[in-house]
Each structure stands twice: as C-alpha cells, then as structure tokens.
Design goal:
There is one protein chain. By secondary structure, the chain is α+β, with helices and mostly antiparallel strands. It has 2 domains: about 240 residues, Thrombin, subunit H (Beta Barrel); about 80 residues, Pdz3 Domain. It has 9 helices and 21 strands. The strands form 4 sheets. It has a 6-stranded antiparallel barrel.
C-alpha cells in the first residue's frame, strides 16, 4: 500500500545546502534564524505496526540523516534539486553511507549535517554491485550514528525511507513489497535486495530505509529502483562494508540461493492452473540454484517439506540455513513435480 509522503519541516537543512554554495558562515545565519531541526519536527506522520508512532521514529533519526553534495552548488541549483542527495551517519567519527549511484561522477564531495556543519568527504569504500558507498568526513566527531536491524525482512513489514531535500527531512512510509529483487529494473541475483512501496524521489538515493524501531533495514539505490518504488541493499551487506572500513570484524557473508524469485499469489496460481510457491525469475551462473538444476520459469513449492509462501519465501535466512547446508527443494517444471537437493556454498 502506498502512502502519501509527508514533509517533516526541518529548515536547517536549507541552511546547510545554501552554506555549501555561499559559505559556511551564510549557513549559520539561516540556522540561527530557524533553529535546529529537532525542535521543529513536532507532528506525527501517522502510525502503524503495533502502535508505532512513525513521526516520533523519524524525529529521533533525523539528526543521523545528512545531505551529500556532489558538485559545486548554488542556491538556484539547490532549488532545482541538482547536485545533492541523501546519506546517513554510521559512526560518530564521520563514516557516512550513501548510494554509489548518488556519488558517481562527483566533482566535489561534501556532507552537510542537520546542525548546520559542512564537512569535506572522500570515498572510503564502495560496492558497485549492491550500490553502496561509504564516505569518510574530515574532522568530524560526536555525530549521531544509526543502528542496523538484525532481523530478516518479510513482505508487508513497515518501512520508512528518510531522506533530505531542500525543505529538510522527507519521510516516505510504506511496506516491504518484495525481497530478493523480483521487482528490480534487472534480475541479477543479489544478497537480500528488497523493494519498498514508497514513491521514489531524487533525494531518496542513498537514504536509509528504517524499520518500526528506527533501525536501518537497508540503503536506497536509485540505480536499481523500479518505477515508483524504492529498491534497497540490505543492512547485512551495508554493515559488512562499514566494518571493513572501521576496522571492526565484519559479520560473515550470509549464504544465498543464487536465484531471483517472486512469491505467487495463491488465487492467481489457481486461475493459471499452476502450483503456488516462488516463481524463479533468474538464476545466478555458477550459483547453488543453477547447480541444483533450477531454471527461470520453475516454481519452487517447498523447502524440506514446508510449503514456500509469503511467510516462508525462498531465501536461506527464512530457513535458518548456514554455509554448507543442504536442503530438499520441491520444484514444479511445466506441470511436472520433482525434488532436488540444493547445497549452499561452504564459504
């Protein structure tokens, strides 16, 4: 379900963006006149998911969302929305995550925080495949980092896209539409890529996608987003890249089936005369799904005897599988049902 975007007025971001073009001193003139964003965001944008007050969650995370400036910018350019996008703080000493698409071709990298500070930035790490870039801010300290969500995603979970535009914090509220990339502009199998049914805007590129607790589920990437929706790389992938930059021990890469699938609607499956389950859209060359004999057009009906459906998608995390695990997978191919053994890579 799509919900109309609400703009949570935080005019201090305007001061930061103007400061990039006219000088940091000018930004403070606007900032001193308007005050900090935290004192302006006072109204709830709605509620959902177990009594969650969405506006409160957004207000609590507003200071962690930043504006990434990718070229010399003027007031006119800012009004036109050119040259800047969103990102979010992941360490108090100046690591910021954004989208590789957002910073591609950047001629100048600066980051404006919600309190009116502007920092020079450099790219510390990037994962072009997943569309994630990590920036390092020069001389930054005492920033407010976000935390990463630790639970898996399911279609229907509440999702908030928190970006920044000229007026301040922009909040898009929706739900997880699909997990695994079925709605993407291409069908390259990638770890946990998911789609949120929020109308995408330019400021969403690099923005955090938050869960009901305000933890980061993923980072929005315009380069992979389908029409009118937001695609995002999952928190597990983002946190691994951040850990590689910060010196922390990265979490082991979760295993993947190497397939892009879409859960079939049971009613539609019945009308078509096909079994319900997960329709295989694409398989990764050399991946576990291909090794097991799966092809685009197959329908995965079960894993270890349990039916695959909206609550049990075809994803290793759903079945608590580890590297090297083997599972029995029920498959329907052109009306013929078989079972195959799928083995996850050991490393």
């Amino acid at each position: 379900m799509r919900q109309e975007r609400r703009l949570l007025t935080a005019a201090v971001v305007l001061s930061a963006v103007i400061g990039v073009g006219l000088g940091v001193g000018s930004s403070w003139l606007v900032y001193n006149h308007t005050g900090p964003s935290q004192s302006i965001i006072t109204r709830s944008a709605g509620s959902g998911g177990g009594g969650v007050v969405i506006g409160d969650v957004a207000a609590q995370r507003a200071a962690s969302v930043v504006t990434v400036v990718t070229q010399p910018i003027s007031v006119d350019a800012a009004v036109a929305g050119a040259g800047f996008t969103s990102g979010f703080v992941v360490s108090s000493d100046g690591l910021v995550v954004t989208s590789t698409h957002a910073v591609a071709g950047a001629t100048q990298l600066r980051v404006a925080t919600s309190d009116g500070h502007v920092y020079q930035a450099s790219i510390a790490a990037s994962d072009i495949e997943h569309g994630i870039a990590v920036l390092r801010l020069a001389g930054a300290s005492s920033l407010q980092p976000v935390s990463f969500a630790s639970t898996g995603l399911r279609p229907g979970d509440l999702a908030m896209v928190l970006g920044r535009n000229l007026g301040g914090v922009e909040l898009g509220v929706g739900t997880v539409r699909s997990v695994g990339g079925a709605d993407l502009v291409d069908t390259t199998p990638l770890d946990g890529i998911f789609v949120v049914d929020v109308n995408a805007t330019g400021s969403d590129d690099g923005a955090p996608v938050l869960d009901a607790n305000g933890a980061v589920m993923g980072v929005a990437s315009a380069s992979r987003s389908p029409s009118n929706h937001v695609a995002a790389a999952p928190a597990a992938v983002v946190s691994r890249i951040v850990a590689s930059v910060s010196g922390a021990s990265p979490a082991p890469k979760p295993p993947g089936f190497g397939a892009v699938t879409e859960i079939l609607d049971p009613g539609l499956a019945a009308l078509l005369g096909i079994p319900p389950g997960a329709l295989v859209l694409a398989v990764e060359s050399g991946g576990p799904a291909e090794a097991a004999g799966l092809h685009a057009g197959d329908i995965v009906t079960s894993v270890n005897g349990t039916a695959v459906d909206g609550g049990h998608p075809f994803d290793p995390a759903t079945w608590n599988l580890n590297a090297g695990s083997s599972v029995s997978v029920g498959v329907s191919t052109h009306g013929t049902s078989t079972k195959v053994t799928l083995t996850l890579p050991s490393s």
